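Duplicate of #3305? Posting structure anyway:
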């Protein structure tokens, strides 16, 4: 079974374009392809009540909840805004994601 094609990858810096965290940026911690979601570091934080398990204490824990993939865009550090990406194919067959505005590469991490 083939996975879904997503426009972002783990480790990308993204900007939220709608919702309560609009215009905030963060790094992608995890992709959730089955629900078309992404976990972004420090964004969409919710409180969860947890029960004590073994040595772990119970209480109220704050953690990131998934954002829908359509609500985030890749953030270009050179342009200082959220941008679309395009794919450039090199002569040796390797692909690279580039900013459509300035041409900055996102795959040199």
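Output from current build:
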């Amino acid at each position: 079974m083939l996975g879904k094609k997503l426009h972002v990858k783990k480790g990308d810096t993204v900007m939220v374009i709608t919702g309560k965290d609009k215009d905030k940026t963060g790094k992608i911690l995890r992709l959730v392809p089955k629900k078309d979601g992404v976990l972004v570091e420090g964004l969409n934080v919710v409180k969860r009540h947890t029960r004590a398990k073994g040595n772990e204490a119970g209480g109220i824990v704050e953690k990131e909840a998934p954002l829908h993939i359509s609500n985030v865009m890749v953030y270009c550090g050179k342009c200082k805004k959220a941008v679309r990406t395009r794919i450039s194919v090199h002569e040796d067959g390797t692909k690279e994601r580039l900013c459509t505005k300035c041409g900055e590469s996102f795959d040199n991490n």
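Confirmed duplicate; merging threads. The radius of gyration is 17 Å. The beta strands are 13-16, 25-32, 37-40, 45-50, 59-64, 67-68, 72-76, 81-83, 85-89, 95-99.
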